[in-house]
Write a structure and sequence with these properties.
Layout: E1 4-11, H1 12-28, E2 44-47, E3 51-59, H2 67-81, E4 86-91, E5 98-100
Antiparallel strand pairs: 1-3, 1-4, 2-3, 4-5
Helix pairs in contact: 1-2
């Protein structure tokens, strides 16, 4: 199982919109018992007066097999669609295993 360190930076409002998107999706799909709000399980979170920096350490960030990860990524696309900027970075165990948006 490949573990990754994931970091996301967005505005404070962007973080709140992401959290709202995920909570609403989970409420609207109670039949999907495997969904959880990963924002409730972040390993680090730092806020300034305008930005929020957060992420997970050594997490299995495989959005093809983890619906909660897929939901975070869908939420980031929702932010983009609504003109909220963000920066996403995932660094896997191998040097070549990374992703950046």
């Amino acid at each position: 199982m490949n573990k990754s360190d994931v970091r996301i930076v967005t505005s404070i409002n962007g973080f709140e919109k992401l959290k709202e998107f995920i909570n609403n999706y989970i409420k609207e799909h109670p039949e999907n018992k495997e969904l959880s709000n990963l924002l409730d399980k972040i390993d680090l979170k730092y806020e300034s007066n305008k930005q929020c920096y957060f992420g997970w350490n050594r997490y299995n960030w495989d959005n093809f097999h983890n619906k909660s990860v897929e939901l975070i990524m869908d939420g980031l696309m929702e932010l983009e669609d609504n003109n909220y900027s963000y920066r996403f970075y995932r660094l896997g165990e191998d040097r070549e295993d990374y992703d950046e948006h």
